[in-house]
Amino acid sequence: MLNNIKILLLILVLLAAATYFVVQQDQSTEAGDNEWLLPELQQNINQISRIELKRQNDVVSLEQKESGWVVAEASGFYANKENIVGLLMNLRSVVLLEKKTSNSDNFERLDLLDSAVSIKLHQGDQLLKSVLIGKDSSTGQGTFVRYADVQQAWLASKINPINVRIDQWLQNRIIDIDAENVSAVRLKQVETGELIEIQRTLAAEAEAFRMANIPEGQELMENANVGGLANGLANYMIDQAEPRDVDNLTHTIELTYDITSGLRYLINVYALNDVYYATVDVQQGLAGTQLTPEAALEMQTVNQRFADWMFVIPSYKFNAVNKTPADYLQSATTEAVTTEDNAG
Containing H/E element for 90? Predict the structure, then answer.
């Protein structure tokens, strides 16, 4: 298994290197008899340091820092790199097909005025190009464009829709740990002190977790799915990111996830006016646990990236963990109590 993981990691590294080389050097796509919309991207795509998107009142500024791409309007939180690569590769492939109107009175019906998507590409302090993206042609095979400083509209090859919303450019999946990698979960309601603890068992997957602190005289409901709490770190999506400042928030839930790697994820949930926030911290798990180099690196990376941030989480994410023992337990049935009494 370990050798397979090492081989997979090596393949991923090689693929990443190959992808960079292709983006950096590949000139195999020919413009033919047409001109590129953005010839600067043929040579300098990896030197783009800032992308400004604007449509009416919506603005998104993507900046490349030492730590990676960030969204300026989100206090500099990390951007979704895959979306940025997709945008640049899309723009890189666009060619100018046909000159259209140079009459500015006609630009509005091509969505090349106020309703256009404005894109500005920077390399360092230099503005490389400013282009306006209009609507698609009636055939759907092309898109109307023009350069911001030129009174000439063009029909270009098809450009994929460009979303100018901050949340569409954030790194909105911050954690993704499957339940199969969770060994225990501890959930505490801060106000009441109510506690739920579940631990992994050796049973079948459907019953992989048991509740560890069932009070005397109570039992699990027939369809209680305590193992659902172990899914709390899977595909962990956020709506927004803000600099961490919890002083004016109400601390509602403490969550501890013990991971099979020996790490412990601490998720603290806060509330303010029906908006829910979460903070993420990672520490070494049980005392004496020896972390692998990979686990130690994961702890360091997560803490470096998220220690200064708090995250607005969707209401469904809050509801999934806003549990008390009453959501899983009921009074023990008469039959169960009688059996225990007879056994005694």
Answer: helix 81-92
